[in-house]
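ingest -> validate -> predict -> emit
validate: passed (alphabet ok, no gaps, 264 aa)
predict: started
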Amino acid sequence: MSYVGKRIRLERIMNRKSKNMVLIPLDHGISDGPIAGLVNMAETINKVAEGGADTVLMQKGMVQHGLRGYGLDVGLIVHMSASTGAGPDPNNKVLVCTVEEAVKLGADAVSIHVNVGSITEAEQLSEMGSVADDCNEWGMPLLAMMYPRGPNVTNPHGADVIAHAARAGAELGADIIKTYYSGDVESFKFVVNGCPVPVIIAGGPKANSDLEFLQMVEGSIKAGGRGVAIGRNTFQHKNPITFTRALAMIVNEGASAEEAVKVL
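emit:
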């Protein structure tokens, strides 16, 4: 088990000063196709890197088209799960990559997606356990996207189910958890306090108000969250560079949403 390797790689995807993370996921092409902002991967990555992103996340086939070879100072997470919006059950995430493949691509970390409460939860949990073992063997950090999604999940943004999903990821060996924001500082403290590894929040659907979105980010940090994983709201923003900059101000510099929104 290579803890040294994990520690070195974690330093590549976390901000060196704040120890937090501004992650820009760019894996939406597998689920949604070539949506706006993801047609030219290299261009988008250049913009978010210029804005101050700490790392980006993508599927294995996109690495050669977007990241390596462009001289960018940004970390790389290779996503190992997939499903498409055209499939019969988009919540059924399956493994499409191995940790060894990610190592060969030069990844600084890998990620896996588990929908807690989905019909195929058992298979997804089993796969995560195996991936966590492989990550320990290779010294590769594991980010787990843990979402409460399924027929019995009536409120996926409730603090109790989010806390359960986050804790399940930590229980199975994740080094970082990505999950929903529960809506306010106090309830998200419950999520963070129940999870022994760093928790970062997902962005969700494209927001209508920059200030409202940044206030959500600020709330998560106040509650003890360690960063954000913001995809569509960043790469589909009218100015991805400055929006990334606003995120970095809050996550890595301790700015308020009101201060950060001024750069927009």
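The mean pLDDT is 94.
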